[in-house]
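HUMAN: You are asked to prepare a plain-text protein record giving the amino acid sequence and the backbone structure tokens, both parts labelled.

ASSISTANT:
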Amino acid sequence: MKPYRIMLADDHVLFRQGIKNILENAVDLTVVGEAGDGIKLLELLKKTIADLVVLDISMPNLRGIEAAREIKAVSPDTKVLILTMHREKEYVYHAVSAGAEGYLLKEDADTELFAAIENIRKGKPYISPLLSGELTREFIQASRKGSPLSPSTPLTLREREILKLIAEGASNKDIADLLYISIRTVENHRANIMRKLGIKQTANLVKYAIREGYTSPGATSDG
């Protein structure tokens, strides 16, 4: 059996290295690449074939859920396993809606990582045991009603990047410097984001970003 090619994305280097060491002890698994943020991950995927991407939600530049959406656009055959500390069911809904095949809590990783990978490798979905019971019931109920668990976003990739930075307290100049674009371009993107979402105040934009998983409350600025 040829090795199952895995790519890792997590901004915590020591944690990423720990997962890599665990995976490389398995004879049929190989780590083909690593990235510390979502943008670098997507760049790496354009050059390297991966069967599975294991990624965190809380990453700089492009968060894991948004990265999952882009992975599916760039490389539809690549599977996605979210490996995160976030237990809130809303994160699971957004991850699944973004195309992720698995959702594993970091606290379960020591006992469940290989099980999660094996399930996904066999074409089966996977959710951490600590979450699966309640979530399975809610997924079943939602599917019976024909209602989505999470709405799709009308925003482009660039707009989602900018929304994340706005929610984290970055000024228009900060965003322009980070993304190597003009302040006028940032202002135009900001206006388009607010128009598409029907939001008129920055405070409500930040609330939307937190609710939709673009950022976490602890990452936002008080100013």
Remarks:
- The two ends are 55 Å apart (CA to CA).
